[in-house]
């Protein structure tokens, strides 16, 4: 085999013959700068190396004037041809990868939102792309090199443990990973315990509102994104982290140790209503209610957990009304008034994320008397 061709193949890709200059490696940088400035350097082919020489690809054979300039600037070079590998450019988006593989009318349906949980990418595949889902999974891995598994949502979040089913589109097929967020590391298993990276801003916001010396009850703690971050940020806090899912508590306990905050957080397995009634009545300065599908049913328990003088509740809700924030405010106020408490003031309210067209997850922070 021709030695130059063999070297080109070794460097990757299909070898393409092109004009070049051969220079000693010590003159390589000088040659590249000169050729680039004169518009002769090929940017589509990779520079090759053989022994003590570099082969620098050119876009065309040099003219006499080019050769004269080269002789002035390079003490040693040789014009020749060589087999080069094409320079590969990393695609920046799914559109870059799939524009010539999918029918044009389907390009507008490509997933725009991808959730990244550690080394896992989670997407929602619309029905019209069902036949092409494996291709989309492979494209996601091509664009996002850190991704080892691509999962497609194949059910809603449902059941007592708030789990959803997934289908593996590409990669290793793992549902367990390590996720980093605001300086904390979380062991997550998407098949066994609920976790959403879209709530990262809320984790940070609530943790930033906590004051030193507070006692917090996290009624639906999951793997601990609120509890761990609060304990990481504050020296003197006590967090009671409740969840009914044994796998969530197992992962939470692991995350407390991973982030070295175990002394500040007490993981508790069980139903929040029962745990508060039996063990946590009247102890909390702050209660976190991140169970938007049914948090309204637990407002009485949240009020019971608060200290006698009152405290703060972070209430999450799903709503599809024209005015979602007002709807959530009213629901919370009415639920609190059915207890022996009342709302002193609404501190904050915002849309957290869209969950469907014209449907939102919202949060309302309220100070309870």
Précis, in short:
By secondary structure, the protein is α/β, with parallel strands linked by helices.
The termini sit apart by 86 Å
CATH class of the largest domain: Alpha Beta
> How big is the Rg?
30 Å
Structural class from helices and strands?
Answer: alpha/beta
Order of helices and strands: HEHEEHEHEEHEEEEHEHEHEHEHEHEE
| DSSP strand content | 25-35%
CATH topology of the largest domain: Rossmann fold
Give the overall shape: elongated
Indicate the mean pLDDT.
92
Give the CATH H-level superfamily of the largest domain: Vaccinia Virus protein VP39
How many alpha or pi helices? 11
Contiguous uncertain segments of 5+ residues: 1-13
What's the total number of strands? 17
| CATH-level-2 architecture of the largest domain | 3-Layer(aba) Sandwich
Task: Please estimate the helix content.
Answer: 25-40%
Q: Give the total of domains.
A: 3
Which short descriptors sum up this protein?
single chain, 369 residues, alpha/beta, Alpha-Beta Plaits, GMP Synthetase, Chain A, domain 3, Rossmann fold, 3 domains, seven-stranded mixed β-sheet, four-stranded antiparallel β-sheet, 11 helices, 17 strands, disordered N terminus
